Amino acid sequence: MWTLNHAETVIDLLASAERLLALTGDAVTLCPTFGTTKGKES
């Protein structure tokens, strides 16, 4: 088992990758379970 200490930073990184891929024509979307909604508790 592992934990993620910097979840916000990882989400920011994934969102940046999503934007970069969209600019290159290889658009993707983040997982709707986690997405980009900040502060959402599961």
Sheet with the most strands, sense and barrel status: none
Question: Approximately how much beta-strand content do the residues carry?
Answer: under 5%
What does the average pLDDT come to?
75
Order of helices and strands: H
- Morphology: elongated
Q: What's the alpha carbon Rg, rounded to whole Å?
A: 12 Å
**Which structural class fits the helix and strand makeup?**
mainly alpha
Uncertain spans, ≥5 residues at pLDDT below 50? none
Distance between the termini: 18 Å
Helix proportion range: 40-55%
Number of helices: 1
- Total beta strand runs: 0
Task: Give structural notes.
The chain is mostly helical. It is 40% helix and 0% strand. The relative contact order is 0.16.
Task: Give the SSE map.
Layout: H1 7-23
In short:
By secondary structure, the chain is mostly helical.
Q: Which features characterize this protein?
A:
42 residues, mainly alpha, 40% helix, elongated
